Q: What sequence folds into this?
């Protein structure tokens, strides 16, 4: 029964996301909510200047409706009360966290659009708000009865004590920003996150955690529906509204399975993206102006090496599939 509801959630999320674009994209054009392309980016990106942004609202709507419809129906069909389900608390809290990050992204996008620049909120403002959202989510898990014990493949349940909450707080904020850095070329973030969600869907299926299967399926469906509008050449960008929301979802899926450790292999591309930025900035400062990469995040480096946007999306997606499969195997044989 859980598999059927996961399929329904995926189809519903895909359909709402895809159809919503027929109205939202013309509306964003009408109110002139276009992306301002940074001057320091690849020169050929300037032709994308003015492409509507905040398109993340497409899959935000699709995912929220799909989970909001399918999860309660699943509980009712199974004769379970969602109000007393700890898993429901994790998923509801995860969705609220993702929406919180998406709201931060919306503020950032709105400032960029209104002031016609590529910089919105300051780094300090973003981080303060992100830590508040992540901290609120972890507090909700604590209040729902989640302890500091986490599953680690081949090690079983490991109680990290207070360090669990510290590592989780830093990890969530770091991963959300890593997902944000992955949004730089047409279709990349949605493609990578689609396969990341499929990986979590497979793990949830192996562990028979049907509510998370529904959650992951809705995420995958929303990403796929968005790609109709965002694949090269993109008709709309997700903006920070969408990328920060997706970052929250990726973290929420890992925590809902009580396997946040699997976020590392599943999110290998996100990690490479943010590490490339850290390395580039550190090397630039240490060498007084020399660069380690032609440009960061790393997808821009490959662009300047001559790779097309479609090739980058394909290769990065395949890497996500490979490491996602490793995560699935860890769950299948290590737990």
A:
């Amino acid at each position: 029964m859980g598999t059927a509801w996961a399929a329904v959630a995926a189809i519903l999320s895909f359909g709402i996301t895809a159809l919503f674009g027929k109205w939202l994209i013309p509306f964003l054009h009408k109110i002139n909510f276009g992306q301002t392309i940074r001057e320091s980016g690849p020169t050929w990106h300037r032709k994308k200047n003015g492409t509507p942004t905040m398109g993340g609202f497409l899959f935000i709507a699709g995912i929220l409706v799909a989970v909001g419809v399918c999860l309660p129906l699943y509980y009712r069909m199974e004769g379970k009360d969602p109000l007393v389900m700890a898993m429901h608390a994790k998923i509801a809290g995860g969705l609220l966290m993702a929406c919180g990050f998406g709201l931060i992204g919306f503020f950032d996008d709105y400032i960029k659009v209104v002031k016609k620049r590529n910089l919105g909120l300051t780094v300090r403002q973003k981080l303060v708000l992100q830590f508040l959202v992540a901290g609120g989510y972890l507090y909700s898990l604590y209040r729902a009865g989640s302890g500091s014990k986490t599953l680690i493949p081949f090690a079983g349940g490991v109680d990290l004590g207070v360090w669990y909450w510290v590592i989780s707080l830093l990890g969530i904020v770091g991963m959300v920003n890593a997902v944000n850095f992955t949004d730089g070329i047409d279709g990349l973030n949605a493609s990578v996150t689609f396969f990341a969600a499929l990986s979590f869907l497979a793990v949830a299926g192996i562990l028979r955690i049907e509510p998370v299967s529904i959650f992951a399926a809705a995420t995958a469906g929303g990403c796929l529906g968005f790609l109709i509008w965002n694949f090269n050449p993109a008709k709309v960008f997700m903006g920070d509204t969408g990328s920060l929301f997706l970052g929250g979802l990726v973290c929420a899926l890992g925590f809902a399975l009580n396997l946040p450790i699997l976020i590392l292999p599943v999110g290998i591309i996100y990690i490479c993206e943010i590490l490339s930025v850290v390395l580039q900035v550190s090397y630039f400062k240490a060498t007084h102006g020399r660069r380690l990469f032609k440009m960061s995040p790393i997808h821009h480096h490959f662009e300047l090496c001559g790779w097309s946007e479609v090739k980058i999306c394909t290769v990065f997606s395949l890497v996500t599939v490979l490491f996602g499969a490793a995560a699935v195997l860890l769950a299948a044989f290590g737990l």
Summary: The mean pLDDT is 91. The chain has twelve helices and two strands.
